User: Which sequence fits this backbone?
């Protein structure tokens, strides 16, 4: 699968101690493994099974996904900013691929 | 030929009634099986702790026209400090072929235990949110979603 298109929304600045919202979507079929093709063969499962958010290299929030997650997964969650740094989001595909995006947050 | 129409419609009616009866008969059994599977999953996720009501809330549409994308928001009432925070939130759909939807693992650095996503629902069913707190207590919230078109494909 070609590298999927990813959109993330992270505020560029935050004050110390502020709780910010991070929103993301990744283009992915999230093939559940339940569907069949036209000739009746099961389409093998291929989903993103794990999402990880790190801040300055430290794991802050992780999530495990099952086939019940919709195609093109959207995720919104929160993070408390104590210092300036880099937030990195990564998505792990069933096929072993890892897709990443990062953003800088400055202290206001 | 004149008699054909009433006969046909009577037969149609009988078949229809048969299907309806079968559907009614099959329904409780299916629901029961799914609930047990969901219960078993929740037991594994919580380590056998019985969930209490409160603290966690799940926001879902009451009617989902398209089961392929049903938005949900789970939030947990917690100060999110190093001593008292939400460790994990699990979302379980009782009526899906596989009840697990997603698990979210928080750290105190999240600041706020709230998460929004979109999920697939195969049919009308109860969706449960289970929150595991740092002290080991477990809270649960549930809501029924009526699904017009199921989201599992053919």
Assistant:
């Amino acid at each position: 699968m070609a590298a999927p298109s990813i959109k993330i929304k992270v505020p560029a600045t935050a004050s110390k101690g502020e709780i910010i919202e991070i929103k993301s979507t990744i283009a992915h079929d999230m093939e559940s493994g339940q569907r069949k093709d036209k000739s009746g063969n099961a389409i093998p499962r291929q989903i993103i099974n794990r999402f990880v958010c790190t801040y300055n290299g430290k794991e802050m929030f992780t999530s495990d996904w099952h086939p019940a997650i919709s195609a093109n997964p959207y995720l919104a969650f929160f993070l408390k900013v104590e210092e300036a740094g880099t937030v990195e989001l990564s998505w792990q595909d069933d096929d072993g691929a890892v897709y990443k995006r990062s953003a800088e947050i400055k202290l206001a | 030929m004149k008699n054909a129409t009433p006969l046909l419609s009577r037969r149609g009616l009988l078949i229809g009634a048969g299907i309806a009866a079968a559907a009614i008969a099959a329904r409780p059994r299916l629901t029961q099986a799914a609930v047990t599977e969901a219960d078993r999953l929740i037991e594994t996720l919580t380590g056998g702790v019985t969930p209490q009501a409160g603290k966690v809330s799940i926001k879902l549409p009451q009617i989902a026209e398209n089961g392929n994308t049903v938005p949900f928001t789970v939030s947990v009432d917690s100060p999110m400090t190093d001593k008292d925070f939400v460790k994990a939130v699990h979302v379980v759909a009782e009526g899906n072929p596989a009840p697990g939807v997603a698990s979210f693992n928080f750290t105190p650095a999240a600041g706020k235990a709230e998460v929004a996503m979109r999920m697939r629902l195969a049919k009308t069913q109860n969706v449960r949110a289970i929150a595991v707190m740092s002290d080991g207590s477990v809270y649960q919230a549930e809501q029924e979603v009526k699904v017009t078109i199921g989201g599992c494909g053919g």
